[in-house]
């Protein structure tokens, strides 16, 4: 099974508002605020500043876009298995380009996305690896405060300072822009579950590495 995606629109705005409530009211001592997010309206948001996170050869004839959530167990399984083989055989060798696009099921995935993007494109995939590997720990920390603290630990493990992490978590404008970007992406590609993949414009569900290899080799041979 795969995680089913949330409907675009009001449900996502409710998650933004929920995340803002925790970061401004529910965290208690040592928490940070998330200004602007509670009233986020994404319909007319300018998303041109959002950076697509790309590995491998951006000019290759074959391009994969992965749609994934940091809180999706199936996405974590993919990154621990098939992705490693795809990276070794196709991404690192320059045969393909690979783009990771976030899907937001919940406020925790939003917080994780803000931290993953906090130190720029060069660090994004390293932080993503840490997020996926540690998902069973940070995503199950119990309380909202516990999850936020565990996510901060991931950021520090990636070499970020606490002040930098908190600045990223309090960037309400960036969160609003990312949610608008997410809405545009999943609408364009009709994404309904995660992980999902767009390979040269064609949508695929999660697959084993063997099945990925067949598809990639066929497209490389075209």
Automatic annotation (TrEMBL):
SUPFAM superfamilies: Thioredoxin-like. Pfam families: Thioredoxin_4 (PF13462). Residues 52-217 form the Thioredoxin-like fold domain. It comes from the Bacteria. Gene3D superfamilies: Glutaredoxin. Keywords: Signal. Residues 1-22 form the signal peptide. This is Disulfide bond formation protein D.
